[in-house]
Design goal:
By secondary structure, the chain is mainly α. Helix content is 70%, strand content 0%. Helix 1 (3-25) packs antiparallel against helix 4 (92-105) and helix 3 (66-85) packs antiparallel against helix 5 (108-121).
Length: 164
């Protein structure tokens, strides 16, 4: 994956988010019932559950692994796309949800490759050692950036739902 493409797409999501916030805050966009329903359907206003793939972790309080985080983001793409597709194509929310879905979907190839590798050669040393050997810094960076972008979307959706 070209870093320039990733960066450009992340910047597109940030622009969509900024535009939606401005339109909403200035009263130029009134959130419809359908948009509220779509926002709730994303599941982002609830706590994230990292349950796939199951990894052997000795400490149950350990944070989710890089692979779990990447899997969640790649799976979130479908949820965001479905929420966006439930709305009329025009408007800031379907554009924002769709752009975020596209960003998360860009992790799919890495997730598929890493899941296959994990299934084939999971280390007896545990997930941390396996991830150090198999997950590149670039994948970690993109997971962090996607997590931050999704967190910003989550805050916006939450404030939009609370205010209405």
């Amino acid at each position: 994956m070209a870093t320039d493409s990733w960066t450009a797409h992340r910047e597109l999501v940030v622009r969509c988010l900024t535009e939606a916030k401005i339109l909403w805050q200035e009263g130029k966009w009134t959130v419809s019932d359908a948009e509220r329903t779509a926002a709730r359907a994303t599941g982002l206003t609830m706590a994230a559950a990292y349950d796939y793939p199951a990894l052997p972790v000795r400490d149950l309080a350990a944070p989710p692994s890089w692979l779990q985080r990447a899997c969640r983001l790649a799976a979130l793409a479908g949820t965001l796309r479905a929420a966006a597709d439930s709305l009329p194509a025009q408007g800031p929310l379907p554009m924002l949800l769709g752009a975020t879905a596209d960003l998360c979907e860009q992790l799919r190839d890495d997730v598929d490759r890493l899941e296959s590798q994990w299934a084939a050669d999971a280390s007896e040393d545990g997930s941390e050692a396996w991830e150090l050997d198999n997950i590149s810094n670039d994948v970690c960076r993109r997971v962090i950036e996607a997590d931050i972008t999704v967190a910003r979307l989550t805050r916006f959706l939450s404030s939009m739902l609370v205010a209405d």
